[in-house]
């Protein structure tokens, strides 16, 4: 894949936390002389995505929803429509590229869609699975897939689990939430486990982590599979400054209101504002929104609280009098640059995951889904 002028197709699952690291990966490929086509499944007929790089082409695929429709109300339906859209359009895209002389060499696909490996191989491409979570999480899912231990149906189903190579002893509370209470997340459990279903056939595994973060575990992983760590996938100006133009993420499924946010922040003292966001996927219950609002109200701090438009009716009416700003949009990572450009000088309350891996300021997490209960473990523990 590293030959000068080579071309790869990059296909993230269409949620912001997966688009962000994979789009950053495209920028790194471009810096090495590789061209990439970033395939985005969206409800927007003409997505306003800008690449800021001649070597990155965005190819939109409709997801089957009308613009403004909330696809996440029925996750199974959303996943089915996404998969159908990709299965219908991706083979056509590959064939068109071949006919035009722009032959792709590989398909870099989101690990949550393992069936894309067969699509790649059927069209003569190498398949590279991109894992957005650290190896600690993926290896736990791998052992569940292999049947190394059973998944507890409730949080208190097991007091202690077996230890695995390069692992400490794990209790039920150390498990990702999909495993900790499997009966509460049956569909998501199936997705995260199935991403390891064909791992032994994947040509290369890409992971959004870095060697020193999981050094001991990485040695064990490399003994089994061809692995390349490519993280942390943050803008270059916050990492190594190798890409002078890479100062923000630049790709978002949502409309950013960063100017409005920054204008409000400039009126506040440094380190006096807390940024609150639960991303593009989490759906909080009414009582959780109420409790969070009460906590913000009585904290004595200013807040920048990012709220999806579909969640606005859960906000208590008195919030308009609180010391916070309500941004009416679907989200969030609205300023994935919000993790940097907006939330840069303040603490942040997030639901976990990429915001923790990417963050460079104090972060307080509210563990809700996926990897968030187990990711705080340090290298000393693993």
Unreliable stretches, pLDDT < 50, 5 or more residues? 320-353, 371-382
The overall pLDDT, averaged over residues, is 76
Class based on secondary structure composition and strand pairing: alpha/beta
Provide the spatial order of strands within the biggest beta sheet. 3-2-1-4-5-6-7
From N to C, what is the helix and strand string?
EHEEHEHEHHHEHEHEHEEEHE
User: Which CATH architecture of the largest domain is right?
Assistant: 3-Layer(aba) Sandwich
Classified by CATH, the class of the largest domain is: Alpha Beta
Q: End-to-end span in angstroms?
A: 32 Å
Strand content: 15-25%
How big is the Rg? 21 Å
- The helical percent reads 25-40%
Number of DSSP E strands: 12
CATH topology of the largest domain: Rossmann fold
Count every helix, treating DSSP H or I runs of 4 or more residues as helices. 10
Give the biggest beta sheet.
7 strands, parallel
- Apparent shape: globular
Count of the domains = 2
**By CATH's scheme, which homologous superfamily of the largest domain applies?**
Glycogen Phosphorylase B
Structure, explained:
The chain is an alpha/beta fold. It folds into two domains: 7-238, Glycogen Phosphorylase B (Rossmann fold, 3-Layer(aba) Sandwich), CATH 3.40.50; 258-373, Rossmann fold. Helices cover 28% and strands 16% of the residues. It contains ten helices and twelve strands. It has helices at 16-31, 75-99, 116-122, 135-146, 177-180, 186-194, 215-222, 258-266, 286-297, 354-358; strands spanning 7-11, 35-42, 56-62, 106-110, 126-131, 204-207, 227-229, 273-277, 302-307, 324-328, 347-350, 363-365. The strands form two sheets. A seven-stranded parallel beta sheet has the order 3-2-1-4-5-6-7. Helix 10 links the parallel strand 11 (347-350) and strand 12. The longest helix has 25 residues, at 75-99. It is globular. The two termini are 32 Å apart. Residues 320-353 and 371-382 have low confidence and may be disordered. GO terms for molecular function: quercetin 3-O-glucosyltransferase activity; quercetin 7-O-glucosyltransferase activity. Keywords: Glycosyltransferase, Transferase.
